[in-house]
Amino acid sequence: MRLKDKRAVVTGGASGIGRAIAEAFKAEGARVAVFDMRVDAVGDDVLGLACDIADSRSVDEAFAKVDAAFGGVDILVNCAGTGQGPNDGSAELYAAIAERQAQIARGETPTAHPDQTIHMSDEGWRRVIGVNLDGTLWCARAALRLMARDGVKGAIVNIASTSAVSGEGPIHYVTSKAAIVGLTRGLAREVASRGIRVNAIHPGPTNTPIMQSIPDDAVKALEAAVPLGRMARPEEIASAAVFLASDESSYATGSTVTVNGGSYFV
Fold this sequence. Notes:
Elements: E1 7-11, H1 16-27, E2 31-36, E3 47-50, H2 56-70, E4 75-78, H3 90-105, H4 122-150, E5 155-159, H5 163-166, H6 171-191, E6 197-203, H7 216-224, H8 234-245, E7 256-259
Parallel strand pairs: 1-2, 1-4, 2-3, 4-5, 5-6, 6-7
């Protein structure tokens, strides 16, 4: 019961890594609120709140409900994220990757290029940055306001990605996750005087619903590049989140825990 009586918010907690974290927090004794667009899909014994984290007003309204129900917050996990937006060049990117690999396999000099940026729409870029980066800031801001009000020495855990350091993946996703690392470090310094800790996790390829949006060949290539030979289970990422949210990591702030099966060393 490492999180006994702690009040936790987990964004994106209806599925994948977020759901695994919410379940792990409950098992460790925390009261958990889950923010998600699909609030009907959240687990049992949690406070499920519909929230679009890219909308700061929606975030503030959700945190007001958490405050009313829990009387404050001790832990925030920024897990909600997306890898695609409208007209963001993803289809062209994956088609070009597949064609380039086919050309190489045929012994040809490849003429297909894995372009995405030239196909990227403004709205496609803004959607991914809006959810992954802006949403992380809006939620951190709302949680910090409550922690500062109550003098809570809380913990914030941001879910980044190995792609932030490897550069592999859609350009807007890579950019957003790299920015989350910078945000984590900046916030850690800013709120250290309050005793609030801010850390991040770099998951590698993980068996979550977001993987369903990626072509099978790309998923197989991801798995093949992992020295441990498989994708992570969401529960394996959740274990790292429990550590960073608990007093076991009381001297860790501004750090990034890498859980990626050895696919990239940070």
